[in-house]
Amino acid sequence: MGKKDPRVDAYIDKSAGFARPILIKLRRLIHVGCSDVEETMKWQFPHFMYHGILCSMAAFREHCSFGFWKGRLMKTLQGHAKSDKAMGQYGRITRLDDLPSDKVLLEQVKEAARLNAEGVKSPKAPAKPKKPLPNPPYFGLALKKNAKALATFEISSPSHKREYIEWISESKTAATRERRIATALEWLAEGKSRNWKYERK
User: Fold this and answer.
1) Is 134 helix (H, G, I), strand (E, B) or coil?
2) Taking Cα atoms as reference points, which of 170, 155, 168, 172 lies closest to residue 194?
3) C or N terminus of the chain, fewer CB within 10 Å?
4) Is 6 helix (H, G, I), strand (E, B) or coil?
5) Are the CB atoms for 50 and 42 separated by under 8 Å?
6) Which domains does the chain have, with CATH numbers?
C-alpha cells in the first residue's frame, strides 16, 4: 500500500495557481501506476520512492518539472521526452497540455517501477578527463634544481602532478608557497606523491 506525505500536500498548496493542477495530476498518476509508492521530500521538493527513487516533481515561479530517476533507461519515454534546460524529462511544464496522456504517463510510471524492482542500475555518466594543469614557472625552476624530484615528477601520473601543482598554486602568501615548494621537492626526491601519508601500504 502506498504512503502519502503531508509535506507534499503543503508543497502543492504553497505552489503557484498554474502549478497546482499539474502537481495534483502527476501525484495521482504516480500512485495509480505504482500502488506501493511512498512520498517524501528531498532537496526541498517531492520525491516518490519505490525500491529507491522512482521520480520527482517540482514547482517554480513560472513552470513545473517532472522526471524519472532512471529516465535514460526508459523505453516509454522515447518520443515523449523534451530536451530543454529544465530538470526532468518534460522540460518546462506550464499547463496540463504540456504533459502526455494519462495512458502514456501510467506506462512510464510502471516501467520506472519495474526497473527499480528489478534492481537495474543507471549507467554512470562518463567522467570528463581533467585538462592537465600548466606547471607554474616558479615550481618548474625549483624542480630543475633537484634532479631526483624532477625525475619523480616527470614519471608521476597526471593526477599526482595536479595534486602538487594545485597545492603550491593555492598558497596565499609567497612564504607559504616557498615552504610548500621545499616540502614538495623533499617528498618528490623520496619518490612520494603529494598525499603519500594517506595511501594504503
Assistant:
1) coil
2) 168
3) C
4) helix
5) no
6) 6-117 (3.90.1150.200), 137-198 (no CATH)
Q: What is the DSSP letter of 198?
A: G
Inter-CA distances, 77 with 92, 108, 135, 142, 196, Å: 16, 7, 47, 57, 48
What cell numbers appear for 189 in the block?
626526491
Tell me what percent of the residues of the chain surpass a pLDDT of 70: 91
pTM over 0.90: no
Q: Identify the CA nearest to 22 among candidates 86, 95, 88, 90.
A: 95
The β-bridge partners of 48 are 39, 55
**What backbone phi and psi angles, to 5 degrees, belong to 170?**
-85, 0
More confident residue, 71 or 38: 38
Q: Letter for the amino acid at 23?
A: L
47 strand-pairing partners: 40, 56
33: closest CA among 117, 134, 151, 144?
A: 117
For all residues of the chain together, what is the average pLDDT?
A: 89
Helices (H), 38-173: 102-117, 137-144, 147-155, 158-169
